[in-house]
Design brief:
Helix 1 crosses helix 3 and helix 6 packs across helix 8. With 260 residues, this protein is α/β, with parallel strands linked by helices. It starts with a helix and ends in a 10-residue tail after the last helix. Helix content is 26%, strand content 19%.
Length: 260
């Protein structure tokens, strides 16, 4: 059984610094048996990143729809696992106001970082929270999951204007704002005519990320993890997509010379 001290030591061994900005995608099942459970995992990150910014996805794309269209960030659960849902309940955690792809954040400048997402018209809009991970030199830790869960790659595809990524028309939502009013918004959803989950193609970039040192293997608890640098992921992915923008969907494998 892992303790908070064990997890903290692993975070240090990864090379993380207390002032780092870290986005965590996680599988608690893969992390394994931890004294105190998922709350202890959160405690380890919050205490270790005392001078930085800790973030998780707080997505609601699985439940938000044309029929269930009112997003209340104060009460709506995330559809991405136990750690984000427990994190959302912590005092001081702020949540962006995107109706389908919100972010939960705690730490230095958290409120400033998540501001403005209610104005985004796509899931991971250029200039939005997901895209700006590269601007704040963020690290992305995939704990027990792969790039299939790496939302940041969606944002890179948006910057590169990859085709066949959105619904033909936006969906109407309402966002409950901090003052209690409802803000009507129109947001495109992820959609591709050939697959239900666009991100299932993202693992095709894995070899390139390792070879270019944009990502490396680390451990948290029992979980095999991938620690990524957002800026380098952006550079490598853009390099690949510059050859063929829709290659992640249309090609079985990516030619290594495309990322070299």
């Amino acid at each position: 059984m892992y303790t908070k001290q064990d997890l903290t030591a692993q975070l240090k061994n990864m090379g993380l610094n207390p002032a780092d900005r870290v986005m965590l995608h996680s599988s608690m099942r893969a992390i394994g048996d931890v004294a105190g459970g998922a709350d202890t995992v959160i405690d380890a990150f919050l205490d270790y990143l005392k001078d930085g910014l800790f973030m998780t996805p707080a997505h609601t794309w699985a439940q938000m729809s044309e029929e269930y269209s009112c997003f209340d960030p104060a009460v709506e659960p995330a559809c991405v696992g136990i750690i984000p849902n427990l994190f959302l309940k912590r005092p001081g955690v702020v949540r962006s106001l995107h109706p389908t792809h919100s972010i939960a954040a705690f730490g230095t400048l958290a409120a400033e970082y998540v501001r403005g997402e209610e104005n985004c018209a796509t899931p991971c809009a250029p200039g939005g929270c997901w895209d700006r991970l590269r601007n704040i030199h963020a690290k992305i830790l995939l704990a027990g999951v792969t790039h299939i869960r790496n939302t940041y790659i969606h944002s890179i595809e948006e910057v590169m204007e990859v085709p066949e990524r959105f619904t033909p028309a936006p969906v109407s939502f309402q966002i409950r704002m901090p003052d209690g009013t409802l803000k009507p918004v129109s947001v495109y959803r992820h959609f591709n005519p050939h697959t239900a989950h666009i991100s299932e193609s993202f693992d095709k970039l894995g070899e390139g990320f390792y070879e270019t040192k944009a990502a490396r293997k680390v451990s948290l608890g029992d979980a095999e993890c991938i620690l990524c640098e957002a800026e380098k992921l952006f550079e490598v992915t853009c390099r690949v997509l510059s050859h063929e923008r829709n290659c992640l969907m249309e090609w079985e494998t990516i030619p290594p010379e495309w990322w070299r």
